[in-house]
Amino acid sequence: MEFSRLFFHSLLQRVWLGDAVLHREWVGLKKLCRISAPGGVKLVNMDENDHELLGRFTREQSQDAFTALVNRHLNLVYSAALRQVRSPQLAEEVAQSVFTQLASHAAKLDPDTILTAWLYQVTRHAAIDVVRREARRQAREQIAFQMSVMNDSPDHWTSIEPLLDEAMQSLDDADRAAILLRFFENKSLREVGEALGASEDAAQKRVSRAVERLREFFAERKVAVGASALAALLSANAVQAAPAGLAVAVVSGTALASTAISASTAIAVTKTIAMTTMQKTLIAAAAAVAVAAGLYQARQVSNLRGQVQTLQHDQQQHQAALSNQVQELQRDRDRATNALAALSAENAALKKSPNETLKLRGDVGRLRQEKADLGSRSALSKITANPEAVKMLRAQQKMGMTILYKDFTDRAKLTPEQADKLNDMLADHIMENVGHVTTVLRDKPAPDQMNAIFAAQEAAVEEKVQALLGPDGLAQYQDYTRNLLSNLTAEQFKGMLKGTDAEKDEKAKQIRAAMQEEVRAALAGAGLAADYQPLSILNFRNIASEQEAERSLKLLEDVYQRVSVRGASFLSGPELEKFQEFKKTAISNSRTALTLNRTMMAPISD
Questions:
Q1: Percent of the chain as helix, strand, coil, to the nearest 5
Q2: Which run of H or of E encompasses 138?
Q3: In terms of DSSP H, where are the helices of 376-446?
Q4: How many angstroms separate the CA atoms of 238 and 183, rounded?
C-alpha cells in the first residue's frame, strides 16, 4: 500500500519517538477508554441506544445488536482510519480490528463510556499499528501514488485532512468527545449535552471552544481557516461512507472472534486473522463449495472496482493452480496410456509364451485400473487426499453453516448440543455432495437422474434434522432454508439504505416480504418445486450442470428485477440505483463462484 511522504514522516515521528500525548493515549486505552472530563469528573449518560445494544450483545451474544452498532458507527471508524492509513484496504482492516476489540471488551466497558469516543481512540491506535507494520516493509518511493488518487477534496479540506486526527488528539477528552458527537455524528446540541452530562447551552460553549482550539492548532501550522468554515468543513467531510459490504464482512469476522472469546480461546482469533496461505486457500475453497455466508456476506454486496479486481486476481491464481494440477494428472494419464499401448503390442507379439502372456495381461489390467482411477479424480481431490486437509475443510464448512443458520438456532431455541449436531449434519451434507458433483460431471447422467441423486441427499439430511428436532423443528428448518435468499438480501441491503434505524428496518422488512413473494411466483412460473433452493451456490445441481446454473441465475435475475419494480413504491431513486448494482454484483459473483467450483470438482478429462 502507498502512503504520502508527508503523512509517513508526521505520523511515524509521533509513533516511534513516543511523545507524551501518545503515552497518555495508550494508558487510557488500557483502562478501556474511560473518558474523564478535566478534574477527573466522569462523563455520563452514554447514548441510551448504544448502551442497550451493548447490553443485549454481552448478555445474549446477539448478532443483531452488534450489527446495529457496526452500522451506526462504521462510517466514523472507517473515515478516521482512512485519514491515517491513506488506503481503503488498510482502513477496512483497521475497522475490522476495532470492532473485534469492541466485541471482546464490550462486557468490560463502564456504563458512563461514550462509545463514539471509545471507538475513535481504539481506531487511532489500531491505525498506528497498521502504519508501523506497513512502513517497515514498503519502499518509500511508492508512497505518493495512493494519496494522489484519493485527494480530490476542496482546497481547505485538502490542507486540513492530513492534520485533523493530530489536531483532535491535542484536545482534552471532553472537548474531543464534543467535536465527535457534534460534527462527526451530526448530533444536536441537546444530544451532545445529554451525552456530556451538561445543559444545551454548556454544550454549545464547549463545542465553540473546541472548534476555536482546532482553528488555533491549524493556524500554528500555517493553515488559515475561520471557525465557522472549519465547523462546516468538519460536518461535510469528516465522515464518509464506508465501502458497500464492509459492514457484513466486519460482522462476520467479529462473530468468529466473539465465539472464540466466549470459549476462552482468544488464540483462535489470532490464528484466524494470521492464517497461512494454505489455510486461506482451503477456506476460500470451502466457502466457494457451499458457504453462502462467505459469498453473500463478504463479497456479494461489494460493487467497488478495487474489490472486484482483487476477486478476479484471486480467482486467476486459483485457476492457475488448478490448471497445473490438471496438467499433472493428465501427464500421469498419458504415461499410463502409453504404457498400456506398449504392453498390448508386446502381448500380441508374445502370444506363444503363455507365462509371459499372463504376466502382461495382469499388467494391462493394472494399468487400465490406474487410468480409470485418474479419470475419476477431480482437482479438488488433490487437496482432500490429505486427511488433515479434509478435516480442516470440513471444519470450515461447519463454521460457515454455524454462521448461516445462527438465526435459525436462536429462533428455534435449540440447546447448544442440538445446534452443534445440526451444524455437523449440514457440514457432512456439503462434503458428501462434493463427491456427487464430481460423479455427475464425469458420468453426465440425464437431468432426471441427476435430480434424483441430489434429491436423495436433501431427503437424507432432512430425515436427520427431523430425528434431531422433531416434525415441528423440521418444518421450521425447511422454512428458514427456503427463505435464505430473501433474508440475506434484506439484511445485506439494509446497510445501503438511508434514514433512521427504524426507517431502515421497515424498508428491509418490505424488501424481505417482496423477495419471498416474488421467489414463490418465479418458482411457480418456471414449474419448479416450492422447496427449490434459489440461492444458487447452495444448490449443488448448479455446480454439476451448466444448464441448471444458467436457469438458476436467470430465475435469480428475474426475482431481483421484480423486487426492484415493487421497490419503487418505498425506496428512493438513489436506493433503487444501489439495488440495481447490488443485483448485478450478486449475479456476477454467483456465476463466478459456480464456475470456479465446477472446475475444481470436475474429473480430469482425457
A1: 80, 0, 20
A2: none
A3: 379-384, 387-404, 406-411, 416-443
A4: 8
User: CA-CA distances (angstroms) from residue 243 to 78, 250, 450, 490?
Assistant: 9, 12, 41, 18
User: Is 98 inside a domain boundary?
Assistant: yes
Residue 156 has pLDDT above 90, yes or no: no
Contact by Cβ (8 Å): 12, 131? yes
Hey, what's the cell of 189? 446540541
Task: Give the domain range for residue 158.
Answer: 5-248
What is residue 283's three-state secondary structure? Answer: helix
Range with lowest mean pLDDT among 74-78, 125-129, 259-263, 529-533: 259-263
Distance separating alpha carbons of residues 173 and 117, to the nearest angstrom: 8
> How many Å apart are CA 347 and CA 144, to the nearest integer?
72
Of 208, 171, 181, which Cα lies nearest the Cα of 46? Answer: 181
Rounded average pLDDT over 269-296: 39
118: exposed, middle or buried (Cβ count in 10 Å: 0-12, 13-18, 19+): buried
> Are the CB atoms for 68 and 501 separated by under 8 Å?
yes
Helix, strand, or coil here: 378?
strand
Burial 505-542 (b: 16+ CB within 10 A, else e): eebbebbbebbbebbeebbeeeeeeeeebbbbbbbbbb
pLDDT digits (tens, 9 = 90+) for 104-128: 998 889 888 899 999 999 999 999 9
**Count: domains in the chain:** 2
pLDDT band at residue 74 under the 50/70/90 scheme: very high
Distance, CA of 286 to CA of 239 (rounded, Å):
36
H-state helical runs in 171-245? 173-179, 189-196, 200-220, 227-237
Q: What angle do CA 158, 80, 103 make, to 5 degrees?
A: 170
Phi then psi dihedrals of residue 378, to 5 deg: -110, 170
226 inside domain: yes
Q: Per residue in 331-381, pLDDT tens? A: 777 776 776 677 666 666 655 555 655 666 676 677 666 655 555 555 556
89, 21 in Cβ contact below 8 A? Answer: no
Other C-beta atoms closer than 10 Å to the C-beta of 137 total 7
Instruction: Please indicate, yes or no, if residue 149 is contained in any of the structural domains.
Output: yes
Measuring CA to CA, which residue among 429, 371, 361 is closest to residue 397? 429
Residue 423 lies in a domain: no
Rounded Cα distance, 582 and 16, in Å = 43
Separation of alpha carbons 155 and 31, rounded Å:
39
In 3D, which of 328, 330, 322, 327 has the Cα closest to residue 284?
Answer: 322
Given 215, 248, 281, the domain boundary residue is: 248
Q: Are 235 and 186 in contact (CB under 8 A)?
A: yes
